[in-house]
Every structure is written in structure tokens, then in C-alpha cells.
Design a protein that fits this description.
The complex is a heterodimer. By secondary structure, chain A is mainly β. Chain A has no helices and eleven strands. Chain A starts with a strand and ends with a strand. Chain B is an all-beta fold. Classes of the chains: A mainly beta, B mainly beta.
């Protein structure tokens, strides 16, 4: 039962252009969403998050958009840089105490082409 | 570096042996989570602990796996009588609060290989 889905296993984007990574979820109880970036042989690094009461959150080159009615979120990276090449994981959780586990998607491997 | 520390980074065991994975959370964090990542898959939740308490172990296999987070010392994930299918990367994360907007911060993982 894959409650968080990243349907694109890989994505290639030219340096300087916009990278858009997508994520869909099925559980309407999720109310907090996070994006993590992962390099090989390292742990996931937190990038940006969004609460279900918002539809957009921006931090520098990274913006996350949430469409609750469609149960869809996306991560925009602009402009894309070579150091952005990594695997990106979307994660979701229910915010109530005692329900803090993160449910991850399977990841999208982003390659930035110089 | 005050990040989440996991050791060992790599662990090789033969079938039937025990594996012990350690995790020291970030300073000031009292919540610890363990996740497992199989090749080409996302991370799967195993267990959530606070000091001396297991809060949620819904992702933990019922047999051979156990976790603790004692009052003093690191959190330990213990796998008894390991089998080939236990080969995976095991990640620990910590957070300062169990609720609200605190993201979980991850260690670099322990890569467990079963011969």
C-alpha cells in the first residue's frame, strides 16, 4: 500500500532551468509534507516542508506547492545547479502526537546537465 | 558536528548472527526514529522511541527485531539471527519535538550486509 507516490523515477534538467518534482498521496489524514535530498552513501537531508493549511512555501531556490484537493505536491528548484543532482524523496506525516512516523515515496533521481 | 551519529557505517554479519546498530541523536533531541531502505526503494518506518519508551513500533517485524533508547546512551536497533533479507541501509533520525513543524534529521545510516 504505497500511500506516497513519486511516479517519475528519474528526471534530467539543463543547468539554469527549472526542475519540477512531483508527489501524490492517498491518505487524507496526512497534514504535513516534507522534501528530502539524498546523496549516495549519505542520509537524507531535509530541504523544505509545508503544512496542510498552506498551499505554498518558499525557501531560496526551493518552493513547495500543495494542492490538497488533488492530493498532490510538487517541489520546484530554480535555477537548477549541478549540486542539485541527487535523489529527492517526498515524505508525509500525520501531525498528532503519537503519529510522527514519516511515510516516504520511492524517490526521484534528479540529474542536472551542465 | 552535532548531527545524528550512527555507527557502525558498515556492518557485515553471517546468517544467524546478531547485528547491533547504534544511533546518537542530535543534541537536545529526545525523539528517535529508525527507518530501513531496501535497494531501489524509499525509506520505510520501523520504530519511534522517546527516552526509555517505545511510542510506535508498527513498522517493526514482530520477530528478531528490537529497539531501545535508554536513559543514558544511544538508541540501539538489534536484529537477532540475521537472514539475507535483512541486508539494507538502516537510518536513524531525531527530532526535538514529537509534534508540530519539527522535521526529522537523519544520520548517514548503517549499511548491513548479510553473507
Amino acid at each position: 500500500d504505497q500511500q506516497v507516490k513519486q511516479n517519475s523515477p528519474s528526471l534530467s534538467v539543463q543547468e539554469g532551468r527549472i526542475s519540477i518534482l512531483n508527489c501524490d498521496y492517498t491518505n487524507s489524514m496526512f497534514d504535513y509534507f516534507l522534501w528530502y535530498k539524498k546523496y549516495p552513501a549519505e542520509g537524507p537531508t531535509f530541504l523544505i516542508s509545508i503544512s496542510s493549511i498552506k498551499d505554498k512555501n518558499e525557501d531560496g531556490r526551493f518552493t513547495v506547492f500543495l494542492n490538497k484537493s488533488a492530493k498532490h505536491l510538487s517541489l520546484h528548484i530554480v535555477p537548477s545547479q549541478p549540486g542539485d543532482s541527487a535523489v529527492y524523496f517526498c515524505a508525509a506525516r500525520k501531525g498528532n502526537f503519537g503519529n510522527e512516523k514519516l511515510t516516504f515515496g520511492t524517490g526521484t533521481r534528479l540529474t542536472i546537465i551542465p | 558536528n552535532a548531527g545524528v551519529m550512527q555507527n557502525p557505517r558498515h556492518l557485515v554479519r553471517r546468517r544467524g548472527q546478531e547485528a547491533r546498530l547504534r544511533c546518537s541523536p542530535m543534541k537536545g533531541h529526545s525523539h528517535v526514529y529508525w527507518y530501513r531502505q531496501l535497494p531501489e526503494e524509499g525509506l520505510k518506518f520501523m520504530v519511534y522511541l522517546q527516552k526509555e519508551n517505545i511510542i510506535d513500533e508498527s513498522g517493526m517485524p514482530k520477530e528478531r527485531f528490537s529497539a531501545e533508547f535508554p536513559k543514558e546512551g544511544p538508541s540501539i536497533l538489534r536484529i537477532q539471527q540475521v537472514v539475507r533479507g535483512d541486508s539494507a541501509a538502516y537510518f536513524c533520525a531525531s527530532s526535538p519535538s514529537g509534534a508540530g513543524g519539527s522535521p526529522q534529521h537523519f544520520g548517514d545510516g548503517t549499511r548491513l550486509s548479510i553473507l
